[in-house]
Specification:
mainly alpha, two-stranded antiparallel sheet, 2 strands, coiled coil, CCAAT-binding_factor
């Protein structure tokens, strides 16, 4: 007999284990779902039952005649009417009264007896048993509710996997409600009136709270600084203190947190920009150290972003004068908070130009440069100047210049001049001029192989090859990417600056920005393209002739024109005589009082016009300017006189023949005409510098020294020569060094060391001997009564 073999393949142990796991999981899920559904159903029934019991207890039975009445007010009125119309109870039998009560209770679902679950008009059934009725009555809460199961990790033994669970008792919601109801009146009873603190106690309490907050901030900050990568999550905890709600210390704590976070970010921020990871980078497996670094960078960037958003919100709240719902910070305190926030933004702008969100900080800070608050405006302008001075590459400067240019244009050139004066701090000394550099620096040609073989030996060829290789490498290093990028950025920055300047010259000639524009053009004039020189000079001269400019603005025009001509403008055939005439004519308009703002510009103009263009200046023009400058030195402040006399000394060295002004004899024909406005035709050679003798008796010792030096012919050696600290400084430097803006005399006046007299003169000691004798003689004479006869003296006087 053949035994039928079971063709079904026996499953492996791994497969059995896998299927058993799936079955166990499904079984657990089904069990959990079933428990949850039964528990929900049970809770729902209990909730309904409790609500119905409460309603039945609180409501009174309603008569059968008006089962639809639901409004309590109408129901009470109806009950009163029924009581009036109804028969008295003593006229009814007890059975009838009981029947009426039962019918009233069973009148409707809302008022029926809930102790029985049968319908209102239920008829008696034939096969109805007492136990069935009993089962229909809802049970009271005597049975314990089913408890929730908490599934734990399973245990595996020889028999298989044993699931582990733990019971979680169900908290009775009804009991909780009762407990809460019981607790509420207790809480009301426990509440005691808050003790009012005195002012001194309140201050002590505030100081205590503030000290605790300071210690908390210090602890978090020191933990972050000690190990930034491990404690980066504490930045969030520290940043959460920006939302301090205690009104006693809210403002101070927020300020401290803002400053602390700013210093922390300056210290722990890396020296590179953190970019977001790509999907491929996220999916690749990395080492633990790399993963830790990535988490640190992500946390740092996110917290830095939230911090900047908080600072922006503080500034916005102050600008909009908005009060928060919490009303923790008053409107007056918002200004102080905003100032701290702006200070932090400025610090981050300067300290972290390479890090993320730097452009966002620029967009926040630039509009604040034009703020109505002078403190905030100056703070932002100083930060931008500092950034320009320390930015070597030019990337951050370009970003700021773009935003400022757009802001000035958007405001229709109605901004503070300080915004444009920040351009003067740009570190731009060269721009891309490719053609000129290629013509000047021609590439060096290396020897060909044939030339080497013909002229050099084998060893020399070997050395030559190594030398050429090294030279090529050095050339590549010089023309590196950074220098090329720097030139490109500087060129783009300067283009935006000149576009802004030319727009203002064209569209807003009467704007208060004009002096700043002219000052900027004077600084960067050597970098302007030669094609614009002729048009620019025409515009500057028309501005001067229009008469709409102030004296200082016209000086800026002159300065700009000569800066343009001193650089690439040398190749142009342009005669700037009209600018010489204008400066010569307006020298006496300089303010002689405490301002003296224009003197420094005049000194710079004279340096560019006469000293640097010595070959284009005639002797007559130089003599006229020296004479007028000496006259001007008589009526200005000491520091201005020193600067002017220093300029005259340089001019006398530059034009040696001008020493004829130190002689009394006239040279040539004609008479000096000091009132003439043309320096070429005023006959300055026929006058002398008599002003120097007046200045020699000046009250300022340095002015006296310079006057004596010039009278002697400005010698470089000898007794009349100047000391090195005076001779080596320029006129502008001397003007600044001896400034009296701080209301101090430079050099300081020596204090008198006169000895104090022991005896103080009193009475007669102040009188001379003759006067004291005359007084004594008159006092010793005996007074005689004589008649007063004035006619006698009158007759003698008439004779």
């Amino acid at each position: 007999m053949k035994v039928r073999r079971n063709k079904k393949q026996v499953p492996s142990f791994r497969k059995l284990l896998k299927t058993s796991k799936v079955k166990l999981e499904n079984k657990l899920k089904n069990k959990q779902f079933k428990q949850q559904s039964t528990l929900k159903k049970y809770r729902k029934e209990q909730r309904k039952l409790r609500q119905a019991v409460k309603d039945a207890v609180s409501k009174k039975p309603i008569p059968l005649e008006d089962p639809k009445e639901k409004r309590p007010g109408k129901r009470i009125e109806r009950e009163e009417e029924d009581e009036e119309e109804a028969l008295p109870l003593d006229m009814m039998d007890e059975d009838d009264l009981q029947l009426m009560k039962d019918l009233g209770q069973r009148a409707s679902f809302l008022t029926r007896d809930l102790s029985s679950s049968e319908p209102v008009h239920a008829r008696k059934r034939k096969h109805e048993h007492v136990i069935d009725k009993y089962e229909k009555i809802p049970r009271t809460l005597q049975t314990a509710p089913e408890k929730e199961l908490i599934h734990l990790l399973p245990i595996k033994d020889k028999s298989g996997i044993i699931p582990q669970t733990r019971e979680k008792p169900v908290i009775d919601s009804n009991q909780d409600e009762e407990d809460q109801e019981e607790m509420e009146p207790e809480e009301e009873i426990i509440e005691e009136p808050i003790e009012e603190l005195t002012l001194e106690e309140h201050l002590i309490e505030r100081k205590k709270k503030l000290q605790e907050k300071k210690m908390r901030i210090a602890a978090l900050a020191s933990a972050i600084l000690s190990d930034p990568e491990s404690n980066i999550k504490k930045l969030k905890e520290l940043r959460s203190m920006l939302m301090e709600q205690d009104p006693d210390v809210a403002v101070t704590v927020r300020k401290l947190v803002i400053v602390s976070l700013m210093e922390l970010f300056k210290d722990i921020t890396p020296s590179y920009k953190i970019r977001p990871l790509t999907e491929a980078e996220k999916s690749t497996k990395i080492r633990k150290e790399t993963q830790k670094l990535r988490e640190f960078e992500e946390g740092l960037v996110s917290q830095y972003k939230f911090y900047l958003e908080n600072l922006e919100q503080v500034v916005k709240d102050w600008k909009q004068r908005k009060l928060k719902k919490s009303n923790v910070v008053s409107l007056k305190a918002y200004k102080g908070l905003a100032e701290v926030a702006v200070k932090s933004l400025c610090e981050l702008l300067v300290a972290l130009p390479h890090f993320n969100f730097h452009n966002n900080i620029i967009v926040l800070v630039v509009p604040l440069m034009n703020d109505m608050s002078k403190l905030i405006s100056e703070m932002c302008c100083e930060a931008v100047k500092k950034l320009f001075k320390q930015d070597k590459l030019g990337q951050a400067s370009l970003g700021v210049i773009k935003v400022i240019s757009g802001f000035v244009k958007g405001r229709n050139y109605e901004v503070r001049p300080e915004m444009l004066r920040t351009f003067l701090c740009l570190r731009i000394k060269e721009v891309e001029v490719k053609k000129d550099t290629e013509d000047i620096n021609k590439q060096k040609k290396f020897m060909t192989f044939k030339e080497k073989r013909r002229t050099l030996s084998r060893m020399q060829r070997k050395w030559k090859k190594a030398e050429e290789k090294l030279e090529r490498e050095l050339r590549e290093a010089e023309a590196s990417e950074s220098s090329e990028k720097k030139l490109k950025l500087h060129t783009e920055t300067l283009n935006i600056v000149f576009v802004t300047y030319f727009r203002i010259l064209k569209k807003a000639q009467r704007s208060p920005l004009l002096p700043a524009v002219l000052e900027g053009l004077a600084k960067f004039a050597h970098l302007i393209n030669v094609e614009f020189f002729d048009d620019l000079l025409v515009v500057l001269h028309s501005l001067i002739e229009s008469g709409d400019l102030s004296y200082q603005e016209s000086l800026h025009c002159v300065q700009t024109a000569f800066h343009v001509l001193s650089g690439q403008g040398d190749v142009l055939n342009i005669d700037p005589m009209k600018f010489y005439t204008h400066l010569y004519k307006t020298l006496f308009k300089l303010h002689a009082g405490a301002t003296n703002e224009g003197v420094e510009i005049v000194l710079q103009c004279l340096d560019v016009m006469l000293t640097k263009r010595r070959k284009q200046v005639s002797q007559q023009r130089a003599l006229a300017f020296i004479k007028r400058l000496c006259t001007l030195a008589l009526h200005v402040l000491p520091n201005s006189s020193i600067g002017i006399l220093a300029t005259n000394r340089i001019l006398m060295h530059t034009f040696p023949k001008t020493d004829l002004l130190l002689d009394n004899e006239s040279q040539g024909s004609g008479v000096f005409l000091p009132e003439l406005d043309e320096p070429e035709y005023c006959n300055a050679q026929n006058t002398a510098l008599w002003e120097l003798h007046v200045l020699r008796r000046h009250y300022h010792p340095i002015v006296q020294r310079f006057a004596a030096h010039l009278i002697a012919g400005a010698p470089s050696e000898g007794s009349e020569a100047l000391k090195p600290e005076l001779s080596r400084r320029s006129a502008a430097e001397l003007f600044e060094a001896y400034s009296m803006a701080a209301m101090t005399f430079n050099p300081p006046v020596e204090s008198s060391n006169s000895k104090r007299k022991d005896k103080v003169l009193q009475g007669d000691s102040f009188l001379s001997e003759e006067l004291s004798q005359l007084i004594k003689r008159h006092c010793s004479e005996v007074a005689t009564q004589l008649p007063l006869d004035f006619t006698k003296y009158l007759e003698t006087s008439l004779r």
